[in-house]
Amino acid sequence: TQLLEQSPQFLSIQEGENLTVYCNSSSVFSSLQWYRQEPGEGPVLLVTVVTGGEVKKLKRLTFQFGDARKDSSLHITAAQPGDTGLYLCAGAQWGSQGNLIFGKGTKLSVKP
Amino acid sequence: DAGVTQSPTHLIKTRGQHVTLRCSPISGHKSVSWYQQVLGQGPQFIFQYYEKEERGRGNFPDRFSARQFPNYSSELNVNALLLGDSALYLCASSSTAQRGSYNSPLHFGNGTRLTVT
């Protein structure tokens, strides 16, 4: 059972467009992290959200943690070709052994 | 400063063989975690080690084992390889142990691509 569902799985857009990636679960998480992974490389942490309802901004990227701590979204404004990559959300749960639960990822392609 | 380094970068093995993957964490990091990423999937947790002790184990068979050395580097061993073990094996280090209530940022290496034929 996939605890974290990401949508869409694939997204192909033109440079300058806006997009939103969703990460949903029926489980509650103590914190949620977003990573970006490029081909041949390991995931790189973008942000960690901890408080329900929290919004964090990283330049053109806006991350939101749901009030109930079960879901999160990543919004990119005016996407650029450099944003191309695999976006992964990962959740941590209270009482777990400290492992992160990853979604399957959203593969984003931004065309010039 | 050097990031997390993993070796080898690529490996081809035959079914039934054994493999050892190596990881050196960022200097000063005492926690190492191992993840398996099958093509088209997100990473799946295998092990976490902190201060040379196993702190967590994912849902993987006993063919998978790991250890952490006094210098905090780590090895992942897989015995009796199956075709389904083909994946990217990621090592991640962090400054503190990963606990369910708080997780210090994970720093991933670029992985070892294992192909089992």
The oligomerization state is heterodimer
Order of helices and strands of chain B: EEEEEEEEEEE
Mean pLDDT of chain A equals: 92
Structural class of chain B: mainly beta
Count of beta strands of chain B: 11
User: Overall mean pLDDT score of chain B?
Assistant: 92
- Summarize the helix and strand pattern of chain A as letters: EEEEEEEEEEE
How far apart are the termini of chain A?
37 Å
Give the count of helical stretches of chain B: 0
Question: Most extensive chain contact?
Answer: A-B, 29 and 30 residues
Please tell me how large the radius of gyration of chain B is: 13 Å
Main beta sheet strand tally, sense and closure of chain A: 6 strands, mixed
The secondary structure category of chain A is mainly beta
Structure description:
The complex is a heterodimer of chains A (112) and B (117). By secondary structure, chain A is mostly beta strands. Chain A has no helices and eleven strands. In chain A, the strands form two sheets. In chain A, strands 2, 4, 5, 9, 10 and 11 form a six-stranded mixed β-sheet that branches. In chain A, strands 1-3-8-7-6 form a five-stranded antiparallel β-sheet, with no helix packed on it. Chain A starts with a strand and ends with a strand. Helix content of chain B is 0%, strand content 49%. Chain B is globular. Chains A and B meet through strand 4, strand 5, strand 9 and strand 10 of A and strand 5, strand 6 and strand 10 of B.
